[in-house]
Design goal:
169 residues; Protein Yojf, Chain: A; 2 domains; 2 helices; 11 strands
Length: 169
């Protein structure tokens, strides 16, 4: 994490704000996911559920800038400039997520970033299955008659070795 915090004595604070500013301005004309959450009473932001909720938004960000320590932006098709002044910013460069902690609401965190891929989740308990080899690969077919779902897995020798390694004794 790259962290900037207001009134910090960290010698990297200024350089971190510059890195965060570059990330923020690079989001210009990109579709972003904007999510706001209350920070849990424990203060542990790791406990926050970032799954999609009703008031979350996805939109194309325009003119993102940091002037002073205030973040400015606009939504597409509007002239209204919006802003928030943070007391803390955290950038996760691996996940391309910026966490904004607004001065105006100390118990709130805003996560802004590139929308992540949302996978459809299917749960199958004790499915019917069959397997066979096809060339060097191994094919496993799982079926759940109740849900009328069939899943076909094609596993390379490397996948099989990893699966065997990860399965409990």
């Amino acid at each position: 994490m790259i962290t900037w915090q207001q009134n910090s004595d960290n010698p990297e604070n200024g350089a971190n704000l510059t890195k965060i500013s570059k990330f923020w301005t690079a989001l210009n004309n990109r579709k972003i996911a904007w999510r706001q959450r209350l920070i849990p009473a424990s203060g542990n932001a790791q406990e926050i559920d970032w799954e999609w909720q009703r008031f979350d938004d996805e939109f194309k960000l325009q003119n993102p800038q940091i002037r002073g320590i205030t973040l400015y932006w606009q939504k597409v098709d509007t002239d209204q400039e919006r802003s928030t002044t943070p007391w803390k910013l955290e950038l996760d460069p691996q996940r391309l997520q910026l966490y904004i902690y607004p001065q105006s609401q100390k118990n709130l965190v805003i996560r802004v970033g590139i929308p992540e891929v949302v996978y459809q989740k299917i749960e199958i308990t004790n499915p019917q299955w069959e397997s066979h080899s096809q060339e060097e690969n191994h094919i496993i077919t799982l079926r759940d008659k109740q849900q009328q779902i069939e899943v076909k897995l094609t596993l390379s020798p490397e996948n099989i070795a990893q699966l065997k390694e990860n399965l409990p004794g």
